[in-house]
Amino acid sequence: MKKNSFWYRAYRLYYDGFRQMTLGRTLWLVIAVKLFIIFIILKLFFFPDFIGENAEKGQEADFVAKELFNHCETK
Amino acid sequence: MDNMMSLIDWARAQFALTAIYHWLFVPLTLGLGLIMSIMETKYYRSGDTFWKQTAQFWQRLFGINFAMGVATGIILEFEFGTNWSNYSWFVGDIFGAPLAIEGIVAFFMESTFVAVMYFGWEKVSRGFHLASTWLTTLGATISAWWILVANSWMQYPVGCAFNPDTMRNEMVSFLDVALSPFAVDKFCHTVISAWVIGAVFVVAVSSWYLLKKRAAERELALKSMRIGTIVGLIASIGAAITGDESAYKVAEVQPMKLAAMEALYNGGTDQSLTAVAWVNPFRQPDYQNEAEAPLRLAIPNGLSILATRTTHGFVPGVNDLLKGFTREDGTVELSAREKMERGRLAIQALADYRKAKADGADEATLQTLLTTLNENMPFFGYGFIKDEAELVPYIPVNFWAFRIMVGFGTLFILFFAYLLFLNWKQKGIFAPATFNSQLSTFSSTTLWVAIALLPCAYICSESGWLVAEFGRQPWTIQDMLPVSASVSDVGSAAVATTFWLFLVLFTALLAVEINIMLKQIKRGIAPA
Questions:
Q1: Interface of A with B in 33-52 (CB under 8 A)
Q2: What pLDDT, on a 0 to 100 scale, did the predictor assign at position B434?
Q3: Which CA distances in Å does B230 have to B56, B412, B419?
Q4: Residues A61, B78: C-beta atoms closer than 8 Å
Q5: Which residues neighbour B212 within 8 Å (Cβ) at sequence distance 6 or greater?
Q6: Which of A32, B97, B334, B462 is the most exposed place for a label (fewest CB within 10 A)?
Q7: CB contact under 8 A, B81 and A47
Q8: B70 or B143: which leads in pLDDT
Q9: Which of A34, A45, A62 should we substitute to test contact with B (largest number of B Cβ atoms within 10 Å)?
Q10: Confidence (pLDDT) at B391
Q11: Structural domain harbouring A38
């Protein structure tokens, strides 16, 4: 890759930027821990797709209709 | 029933907790983004390395806030899918489209240019770097735009049509959704009020340096304070103007919210605007029997002007909205009972239509049911309401949160005007070269007040959201779907567990952020 090419310069921007980080290291650590908690722990174990888990594939509209009608005295 | 109420309360509490926490970071990102961009522009124009260091200092604080806030909003989307699945399905692509655009365009734009902003000081030209800084700020602002479009649609659903086969509202006009007047007002008010928080933050940090007599940061503090003051004054006046416009729009499309904000039980023409009154914060007032809130001090005709732009305009109160009334233009507003009846007709027609279609009924039958559904669709949500008292939001929260927001907003205008006056009195506000001599301009009391105003700015901002979100109860989508029908049938214990989990997580993250932020402020202008 030529050293004056856009892609090389973009690569160096990130490479040098990450290498020279000081405060940024702490911040990235916090971000990584946070993303792990949000996407691995919370999403997988605490926030399932309720309709996906309870409705049959292709029958989501019927499921939601039933759920909504359950909240109404009419039906 | 008790279990359902408990579930709704926990799901709402969890959503509120997440949204409030997320909103601690967003306004500072927007506000500080603007100010650091202005500072870098000064560097670009003058070539003075002082402004480069100053911009870098504020960009470090921006980065801390950005890092702590990033992705906290994602949790809200998880909650939609789990706790609010009926709502998520019901609004489908209308709510999803702005959020998707926000994720794809705005977030990536922000993320790309924030890297150039931090890593590119010695790698790209001054002009490109300045553009990256502004584009980072613009990306955050565009991000706010799409989120507020989604929120505004819930408060004022436009540009959509309900499809009874898919049980979803489908977008029929992207422009109506994206450029809804409610969204435009909300965006302007929210973003401008975020600039106030940025300004208050800059002035507070600068005041701390001045109080501590930090020689190395003296010039940074004084010049930052000056920019913060000018931005703060313009933004706080702008927030008042856009807030007035938002209130006008609320009067038009969410009159019950306005009545709750004002504790206006019985409306009429020539309505006065309540300055203060005694509304018990801990219980819903007896709006059916009380003429008005006790100990009320009001500005004559103020509410009529705010809500109708005329001194004599009719403003409906809670009881008018429940009992029904006739507007000045002759339009009849149905009573709550009539709306509930029409809503039940819509739901019944929808249920019958779906059953008839499944049973293979003829086209004429289906068409008759669809006609009934469409005629009553504007009242669909009312069909889920069991008691008309459910239609009245919790008045004390709306009343007091509105006054806290307006009170602090007024205080910011006065305080920034005072700071600007002090600057002007000393040397003239357009004399930056002489600004170093202005240290004595600010008394220690003034500086301490500036610091004390920082938490007030956050309370003010969060109060605005309390008004917006408590005021629209019981609706998730105005008139279309109440909270009680939006919630998933998940166990309340599960939601309660995640509520406490979030409380611990968010508190820990906030403590980490404040700790890193304070360390960085104490470190001062020296590179990290």
A1: 34-35, 37-39, 42-43, 46-51
A2: 45
A3: 20, 12, 9
A4: no
A5: none
A6: A32
A7: yes
A8: B143
A9: A34
A10: 97
A11: 6-70
Q: Is residue A1 part of a domain?
A: no
> Cβ of A30 and B509 within 8 Å?
yes
Map tokens 């309870």 to a residue. Answer: A54
Looking at the predicted structure, is the pLDDT value of residue A26 above 70?
yes
Q: Do B490 and A46 touch (CB under 8 A)?
A: no
A46: its two tokens: 């605490």
Query: Please, how many CA atoms are within 13 Å of residue B92, restricted to the half-sphere of its CB?
Result: 18
Whose CA is closest to B506, among B30, B25, B11? B25
Q: Read off the pLDDT of residues A7-25 as tens digits, 9 standing for 90 and up.
A: 888 889 888 988 888 888 9
Angle between helices B181-211 and B218-253 (to 10 degrees): 150
Chain A contact set for B124 (CB, 8 A): 13
How many structural domains compose chain A?
A: 1
Q: Are strands B297-299 and B273-276 parallel, antiparallel or unpaired?
A: antiparallel
Helix (H, G, I), strand (E, B) or coil at B259: helix
Question: Of the candidates A14, A26, A72, which has its C-beta nearest B119's C-beta?
Answer: A14
A9 vs B: CB within 8 A: yes
**3-state DSSP of B97-119:** HHHHHHHHHHHHHHHHHHHHHHH
Q: Would you say residue A47 lies in a domain? A: yes
**Residues of chain B with C-beta less than 8 angstroms from the C-beta of A19:** none
Judged by average pLDDT, the poorest of B2-11, B360-369, B463-472 is B2-11
Residue B440: predicted pLDDT = 60
ipTM: 0.87
- A:B CB pairs within 8 Å: 130
Sketch the domain layout of chain B as residue ranges.
2-258+394-522
Distance CA(B377)–CA(B371), nearest Å, equals 10
Binary contact (B82, A38; C-beta < 8 A): no
The answer to whether A8 contacts chain B (CB < 8 Å) is no
Taking 70 as the threshold, does the pLDDT of residue B90 lie above it?
yes
Q: What is the pLDDT of residues B7-17, one digit of tens each?
A: 899 999 999 99
Within-domain flag for A75: no
Say what the pLDDT of residue B522 is: 94
Answer whether B63 sits within 8 Å of A27, measured CB to CB.
yes
Please compute the mean of the pLDDT values over residues B326-353 and round it to a whole number: 93
pLDDT computed for residue A74 by the predictor: 59
Nearest to B347 among A17, A38, A74 (CB): A74
Quickly list H helices, chain A. Answer: 6-19, 23-35, 50-54, 60-70
Q: Chain B contacts of A50, Cβ < 8 Å?
A: 81-83, 85, 488, 490
Nearest Cα neighbor of B143 from B201, B69, B236, B202 is B69
For the segment B459-466, the average pLDDT, to the nearest whole number, is: 96
